[in-house]
Specification:
The chain has 331 residues and is α/β, with parallel strands linked by helices. It has helices spanning 12-23, 38-48, 56-61, 77-86, 101-114, 129-137, 163-181, 267-270, 272-288, 296-315; strands spanning 3-8, 28-34, 51-52, 67-70, 91-94, 119-122, 144-152, 185-191, 206-212, 217-223, 231-238, 241-245, 252-255, 258-261, 319-320. Strand 5 (91-94), helix 5 and strand 6 form a beta-alpha-beta unit. It starts with a strand and ends in an 11-residue tail after the last strand. It binds (2R,3S,4s,5R,6S)-2,3,4,5,6-pentahydroxycyclohexanone. (2R,3S,4s,5R,6S)-2,3,4,5,6-pentahydroxycyclohexanone binds next to helix 7.
């Protein structure tokens, strides 16, 4: 079976997903593209040889569309995911599932009402070979004590709200920590070091500390105007040793009394293989009627953690992450 995918939102990530779906992923084809900017929609539609749609909900309901990929702006995710659920179609939604917990809850309710999982949230680190190796290495290291994360971008849009560092960037660490450790967060604190003069008024960097249910602490150094490159690292310190996921570049270049390893410039390079595998798994799962990857419950927990984190940033206090009992469908 070829899974026919409608792509909603073809900015940086959506265009990349459309390209991968039509050129690299097997068993998939793109059948239609929507974007609020018709010119941008045409660029991707021409590249993958399909038509553009003027109405995203018409694209979702199109009989030629078996599954939907949503990569439009965050505020539109809830509406489109709900439309996919109403049409009974599998959907891969870029993170966040919805920017607020209420929106995530409405999606959970709709999916629970259907009685089957159709929603996958685009937490691609779960498909990164490095993160997978890190997770399997933990088995021999005894109980984890600390997870020490670094997440740096070259630069961010000027005037970006400080909260975006939490909801748009650190949200990946919130999900990765749960996936690595198999437990949920209970509280979050956000420290605000002196801001970089390159951050244009944004509180950047931030140092976030998340306490998990067992007492394991996650610290996240998030710095989106780091200038030198895109740098994601993660070390799990456990009772019998530690496991470190460092820069993925294998070659160390030594010259003129120095040794250097290349650093990627953005996440599409660093996580290229993760995105490819995420899409392949999703398409294979759709063909088999299985939901794979992060669920809407995982998306809900990530948004609940980010929401508590934004309050922690605004108030300077430690904030509890309040989670209801995991619904049956997601156990
Ligand atoms: C971006 O939106 C992403 O999702 C990237 O994975 C992340 O590393 C980056 O910080 C975000 O801005």
């Amino acid at each position: 079976m070829t899974v026919r995918v409608g792509v909603i939102g073809v900015g940086l990530m959506g265009a990349e997903h459309a390209r991968l779906l039509s050129r690299t992923v097997t068993g998939a084809e793109v059948t239609g593209v929507f974007d609020v900017d018709p010119d941008r929609a045409s660029v991707t539609a021409d590249l993958v040889g399909v038509q553009t749609y003027a109405d995203p909900v018409a694209l979702i309901n199109e009989p030629q569309v078996d599954a939907v990929l949503i990569a439009s702006v965050d505020a539109t995710h809830e509406e489109y995911v709900l439309a996919c659920l109403a049409a009974g179609k599998p959907v891969l939604c870029e993170k966040p599932l919805a920017p607020g917990v209420e929106g995530c809850r409405r999606i959970l309710e709709a999916e629970i009402g259907l009685g089957r999982r159709l929603v996958t949230v685009g937490f691609m680190r779960r498909f990164d070979p490095g993160y997978e190796a890190l997770r399997s290495d933990l088995a021999g290291l005894g109980p984890p004590l600390l997870v020490r994360c670094v997440h740096r971008n070259v630069g961010a849009r000027p005037g970006q709200p400080s909260s975006n560092l939490i909801s748009g960037s650190a949200v990946h660490e919130f999900d990765a920590a749960r996936w690595l450790l198999g437990e949920d967060p209970v509280r979050i604190t956000v420290h605000r070091p002196r801001a970089s003069s390159h951050a244009g008024g944004t509180r950047d960097p931030l140092l976030i500390v998340v306490e998990m249910a067992s007492g394991t602490l996650i610290d996240i150094d998030i710095f989106v105007n780091a200038r030198y490159g895109y740098d994601v690292r993660c070390e799990v310190v456990a009772e019998e040793g530690s496991a470190l996921l460092d820069s993925p570049h294998p070659v160390v270049r030594r010259t003129a009394a120095s040794a250097a390893r290349a650093v990627p410039v953005d996440w599409r390079h660093r996580f290229a293989e993760a995105y490819r595998r995420e899409l392949q798994e999703w398409v294979d799962g759709v063909a088999l009627g299985q939901a794979r990857g992060a669920s809407s419950w995982d998306g809900y927990v990530a948004t609940a953690t980010a929401t508590a984190g934004i309050r922690a940033l605004d108030t300077g206090r430690t904030i509890d992450v309040e989670l209801p009992t995991v619904p049956e469908l997601y156990r």
